[in-house]
């Protein structure tokens, strides 16, 4: 099992570089759970040769990414580096959509779902895109999404990769769930100002994020954090999200996946994965709140109430209470008066 120390202070962004040990371990665990042999890195290298979406500079995926790293290092101006960075991100977006054509909420978060069924989901595709960009020498990582491109809110219902342009212009959301590579999600969750925060990107020309404002209205006097003040999600948080999705989509679990309703065994599986997720990232508010729902479905009312109160406190500290969290908090407070 991949173990990740809980970060204190500024959390280091996840190193997800293609071919690196962290992605290899994440993939190996997914393969082991599915009973598969082989290596995801080998599968992706083979997919690169089949996809017909080449990146200039090498016959293999590694060679092409390493050549792009050299091209970026040799670029003479910030504008030239930014152009190469945008081209690389747009290529990664095309490549993933071509190599893994199907999308599945139920199974697509598992690395093993790619060789088995050709399915992907937002977390997995974002890990792969960020890893390809990192291998090319670019600063990239993951953020959660709480407000989509049309401004509709969710309870951290999506994940996207983000590229930090090397010339200093700002950030770009690179989202393979969208038809075009550079998205404009209106609300993200990332590390800023000493903790995980709900943030609202400020977009400039070309979908470039020039700054972020905090959803709770706090922050610097001018109200806008520079992109350099945002840090992408840590390895612990990313690892936690894989286990969160395993809990959410467990057969018969909290969503009743596959069976149409929750079952005792399914709820136990959801609880187990959520507690694991919170060991890896205690600041994962989504996992904290959903664990309360699992406990509530199990009839463990006092534990559910305490868990909902804990989740609400965590969301409030991070700057926003989604509607579902507010409803759970109202239920918990009602239980306290009964």
UniProtKB/TrEMBL annotation:
Q: What is this protein called?
A: Uncharacterized protein
**Source species of the chain:** Deinococcus koreensis
